[in-house]
Amino acid sequence: MSVDSLTQQNQQSFARVWGLRGLDADALKPEERHLLRGMQAHRALYPLWDRLNHLDAGAPVIGSMNPIAHTIMHAILEAQIEDADPSEVNAALEDLMQAGFSRNEALHVLGSMLALELGEVVSSNESYNDARYRGRIALIRQQLKNPEDVESRLRKMGRNERCLCGSGKKFKKCCLDHLPVDLKRSTWAFVLNSDFLYAVPSFMAQGGEDELFVLLQSLSAVVQTLEQMGDEEGAWHALEDMLELGKDDEAAVEDVCQDIVDFALNHYDFAERALAILDQSHPYGLESNDAVQLTWDLDRADLLARAGRVEESAAIYQQALERWQNGNSDVREILMNRWDLWKSDWQPQ
Ligand SMILES: [Zn+2]
Ligand SMILES: [Zn+2]
């Protein structure tokens, strides 16, 4: 079993379960409930889940994260929590949250141990070692209470001694490379086959997932992923989602509009829709200096040209040339560069 096949097998059930999210939790089977809860763990991934039926180019990867594999970890943990099996998981979740971790951060700590366990099953064809998994989670709890004690016990371990997690294996073949867990580190790598396929993108993990700026940055990565996978409608859908989430924050609107313009300048089919958004949102520069104003005007002109409205586009350039002919040199330089580009694209030779 490889990570890719794991992901592909699951893509269809993800799409099906995502369609159930309007239902009451008790109308769902336990495995559907767990998966749905996992899929809802990161708001930034919603536009990706909306597009699962349109993705056929293999597994999506966001930054270095495989969101499907990542979510499988969430779902397995939700099942373990609900069944209280192993019971160490619930106890550790509680301890971590009491120590100030958000629920998601705590799940990522536990998930890094789960991924380690599954990684050993996948890469070494070992059978699942329940004692090892429970032992490692118990060590996280001890580490929370007394980090120095756990660290010094690990330091004193001989490489050939039986590992302190209780797996029955030698330390060097078990926890030597994996413990102690760095509880201060906020990027929880879910390691499998020593690839960081399951890493949480650092911007998602640095706490603050609830902050608008962090959320928009994560969504922007989702836009790029959908775009790279050839799902332009999906990328656009994610951009609209960003705009909706950011609509009450002027700085966010400006950032998102910039992403929208950049996208539409590369995908002409979206130029009209981007123009409509610019006309509604007026994102024209909070700290309005001349260069910012000019750049928005010229972006708008370039969108018009890409929408086939070349004369309207030329008129904006003409106005700018008249207005800024005596402007400062920075502004004139921007204008002349963009004008040269415009002419080479749109002026018949
Ligand atoms: Zn997560
Ligand atoms: Zn061990």
TrEMBL record:
Name of the protein in question: Zinc chelation protein SecC
Organism of origin is Sulfobacillus acidophilus
> Highest taxon of the source?
Bacteria
| InterPro entries linked to this entry | SEC_C_motif (IPR004027)
List, alphabetically, the Pfam families matched: SEC-C
